[in-house]
């Protein structure tokens, strides 16, 4: 079925085109590159997988609660509005909220596909081009996985949100290769990792949890890729150049935090918008979730050297400065381990099934 028919809101155009300047960078040096990036490239080659085979698409998904998450994670849960809703309406809220979340994952992965293809073209070093090439395949696979989950299981989707579209456009249209890294590898991918983790670790539905676990295994490498490349490059910037990038980080982080309210869902469901947005703003669950979104971003921004007064002040204002000392390497290694555990569980289940 065409995606057009499962979108909950009208899509004015099926193609979104952004204008931007790109400088193609060839390199004639094929040795003496970054050993860390080359090791990451080797790891990226070995960890390629097939979404059609690694995931068990025969698993059922409850159409009223695809991820199987408790109502307590719904921002309007426990409010007078929620209490006025009947069970059928609550199921509709769950389904639409989860479809909206998965849709943004899918659209964001397509943005990552475009951004990484651009990195292959623009980044000056050969070892970075090599690794970015493996990420292009990763991102195509991620779009495939989320698209299949939405089309075959949830059967509902939402268009890209204006805030995500704005951030993707800023990332894709800047001609400087490092800004593509910064916008995609550090900010968007970092935010996505925290959002994926919530589903991976809390969803009792094995298919939804597995999709996010396997995507996270790849994304962990992607964030490491951005960290390695920018950590080497940013010490070379002038103060003015570094200040410009820090301003971009601050604006992007505020935008990601403040516009994470799923406004489109409340409007589509015909619920009182002002009441919904007020509930989202004051929801303890949403406050905690918004903070957790920055667990991957803050320490990486610090690590790559964008740690001026403006950035620190912004993170202090957001209440996320404490994440600066999070061990990102340990988190990324854990993402890899959890994905392998999902594989092990599926292997055991398959073997038990064969024995029976």
How much helix, percentage-wise, in residues? Answer: 55-70%
The span between the termini is 37 Å
Average pLDDT across residues?
Answer: 90
Largest sheet: none
Rg over CA atoms, rounded to whole Å, is 21 Å
Structure report:
The protein is mostly helical. The chain is 68% helix and 0% strand. It has helices at residues 35-46, 51-54, 80-84, 87-122, 126-154, 162-173, 177-202, 206-233, 239-258, 263-269, 273-282, 284-292, 297-303, 309-318, 328-355. The protein is globular, with a radius of gyration of 21 Å.
Task: Tell me briefly what this model is.
This protein has helices spanning 35-46, 51-54, 80-84, 87-122, 126-154, 162-173, 177-202, 206-233, 239-258, 263-269, 273-282, 284-292, 297-303, 309-318, 328-355. With 356 residues, it is an all-alpha fold.
Keywords:
356 residues; mainly alpha; 15 helices
Please write out the topology.
Blueprint: H1 35-46, H2 51-54, H3 80-84, H4 87-122, H5 126-154, H6 162-173, H7 177-202, H8 206-233, H9 239-258, H10 263-269, H11 273-282, H12 284-292, H13 297-303, H14 309-318, H15 328-355
Helix pairs in contact: 1-5, 1-8, 4-5, 4-6, 4-7, 4-10, 5-8, 6-7, 7-8, 7-9, 8-15, 9-14
């Amino acid at each position: 079925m065409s995606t057009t028919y499962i979108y909950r809101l009208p899509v004015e155009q099926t193609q979104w085109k952004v204008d931007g300047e790109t400088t193609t960078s060839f390199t004639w040096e094929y040795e003496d590159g970054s050993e860390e990036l080359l090791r990451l490239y080797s790891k990226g080659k070995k960890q390629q997988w097939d979404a059609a085979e690694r995931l068990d698409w025969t698993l059922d998904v409850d159409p009223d609660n695809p991820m199987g998450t408790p109502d307590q994670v719904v921002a309007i849960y426990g409010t007078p509005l929620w209490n006025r809703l009947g069970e059928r309406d609550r199921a509709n809220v769950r389904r639409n909220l989860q479809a909206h979340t998965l849709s943004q994952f899918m659209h964001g992965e397509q943005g990552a596909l475009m951004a990484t293809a651009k990195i292959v073209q623009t980044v000056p070093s050969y070892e970075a081009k090599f690794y970015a090439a493996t990420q292009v395949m990763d991102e195509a696979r991620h779009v495939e996985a989320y698209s299949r989950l939405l089309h075959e299981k949830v059967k509902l989707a939402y268009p890209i949100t204006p805030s995500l579209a704005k951030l993707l456009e800023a990332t894709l249209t800047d001609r400087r290769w490092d800004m593509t890294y910064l916008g995609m590898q550090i900010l968007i991918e970092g935010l996505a990792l925290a959002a994926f983790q919530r589903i991976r670790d809390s969803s009792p539905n094995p298919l939804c949890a597995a999709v996010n676990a396997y995507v996270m295994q790849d994304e962990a490498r992607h964030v490491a890729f951005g960290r390695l490349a920018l950590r080497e490059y940013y010490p070379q910037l002038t103060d003015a150049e570094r200040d410009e990038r820090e301003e971009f980080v601050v604006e992007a982080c505020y935008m990601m935090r403040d516009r994470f309210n799923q406004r489109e869902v409340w409007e589509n469901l015909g619920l009182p918008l002002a009441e919904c947005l007020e509930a989202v703003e004051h929801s303890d669950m949403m406050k905690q979730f918004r903070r957790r979104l920055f667990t991957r971003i803050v320490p990486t921004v610090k690590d790559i050297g964008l740690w001026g007064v403006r950035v620190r002040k912004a993170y202090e204002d957001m209440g996320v400065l404490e994440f600066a000392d999070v061990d990102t390497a340990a988190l990324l290694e854990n993402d890899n381990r959890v994905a392998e555990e999902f594989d092990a569980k599926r292997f055991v289940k398959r073997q038990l099934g064969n024995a029976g």
